[in-house]
Amino acid sequence: MTLRVVVADDQLLVRTGFRMIIDARDDLEVVGEASDGQEAVRLTRDLAPDVVLMDVRMPVVDGIEATRQIAECGSRARVLVLTTWDVDAHVVDALRAGASGFLLKDIRPAELVDAIRLTARGDALLAPTVLGRVLDRFLRTTPDPAPPPSLKDLSGREREVLTLIGQALSNAEIAERLRLSEATVKNHVTAVLRKLGLRDRVQAVVAAYDHGLVEPRRP
Q1: Do 3 and 28 touch, CB atoms closer than 8 A?
Q2: Where are the domains of the chain?
Q3: Tens digits of per-residue pLDDT, 73-109?
Q4: What is the CATH number of domain 156-210?
Q5: CATH C-level class of 3-138
């Protein structure tokens, strides 16, 4: 199956570069390009891509608001946010808006392709240099005005799993920690996402921090 990608960036050279990298792969295809966030939202609705590569700073509607609109409209597209800064407030804003991943624009072509594939599968994706700092900043940022999803429907085991997701542990690591099979952990993760109405693991990380299940490491 070919993964459909929309590239949203206000710089033509950046869009052209991404298109060349993506279209060179047999399983990937750029189906649309947007030069601003408003156009990115429209193309996502019209073209139903699997992944949107979203620049943060764009005219008309910025990448954060465009990501929020895509998430709220019920699109199945997953947004992969790209920026030139390795950590700033935009990281947290993008995740809260519904982004499924966050990468730097200087990523290598092979890593970008892998990132698109991972994001399409629903795996959590953050640049390795960013992940730790992003998680540690969460409780020191302005709280999200929207209340986090209630945890009342989660079982005790599911709360444990959510807490460990918030610590950026993989299913294999969670299985080892809780002495469960990896298949059982996968079922628990699926249940957590379904009960909380979350799109993917990244949003589960956000929920874990919003509920205080995970404390940021102090510098």
Answers
A1: yes
A2: 3-138, 156-210
A3: 889 899 998 877 655 567 778 888 888 888 888 889 9
A4: 1.10.10.10
A5: alpha beta
